[in-house]
Amino acid sequence: MARQGESATKSAISESAAAITSRENRWLKRFRAALSGERGDDGAVGVEGVRLVEAALGSSLPVEALLVSESGAGHLPRIARVLSAEVPVLRTSDKLFAGVADTRTPQGIAALVRPRQAAIENLLRGDAPLVVVLVGVQDPGNVGTIIRAAEAFGATGAATCAANGIGSADPFAPKALRASAGSALRLPIVHAISTTVLLAQLRISRVKVYAAVASSADESRIGGNVDASVRLLPPWGVDWKIPAAILIGNEGSGLPAKIVRSADAGVYIPQAASASPVGLESLNAAMAASVLLYEAMRQRDSARKQSS
Known about the structure:
Blueprint: H1 2-16, E1 18-19, H2 26-35, E2 45-48, H3 50-57, E3 63-68, H4 76-79, E4 89-91, H5 94-100, E5 109-113, H6 120-123, E6 130-135, H7 140-152, E7 157-161, H8 174-180, E8 189-190, H9 195-204, E9 208-212, E10 232-233, E11 244-248, H10 257-262, E12 265-267, H11 285-307
Parallel strand pairs: 1-4, 3-4, 6-7, 6-11, 7-8, 9-11, 9-12, 10-12
Antiparallel strand pairs: 2-5, 3-5
């Protein structure tokens, strides 16, 4: 019976879908541009693959259209429960779909979605907001992974800034969206905000700011762009139960020294000593952010359990 229901659903959607047979079709052009990373005039972005499409349809965000290929139609029963009748469903051939897809092995399903435009206030919701700030993080994969970790570990929002002329990758670009596994469609994100403006707003809101820095396993040494005037703490030395923001810097150069000095403290992640003469490199941006966000969640969960 379940299979019959799924087949009926797939058939009903497929029959109501408009067929596209020309690569010059305006909808295909829109999908081609969006899936290559271009924003539409209305801010719409392209998401591809059944998991991301399902996340987009279930996010309450405006979805302009759904595009499915002949083989991609097999995913329609899975998304039927979150597919609004108001969303236009377009069908095309596998060949034409491959011409607009951003992935090497497309799953044959994509959507145009408009991400929410978050403000700083949206990031600071609740009694103890937790914000991750990406400062010059250039790799889209790192950006997406950090946003995924932020949602998983209870952050209330994320922001992206530039540093020394180096901007952060767009969290709604195709690669970043895939790396976030849909988290970028749910977590409030302020993209490309001025670092100075953001830090000022965090101060006004009495949010403690912690700069992630590189350091050796020896707690007496300070590494990265940190001078001796900066207080340096391990993750467990920070009180993450209060309103807090974590600054994550560029993959190669880290955070600018000026930004680190403006933080309430630097936070580093101790690493095991290495027997190799080359030594260990510091964790990359996404790994460091994940460790710090996890510690913040651990402390907050522990506090909730103690108070209940």
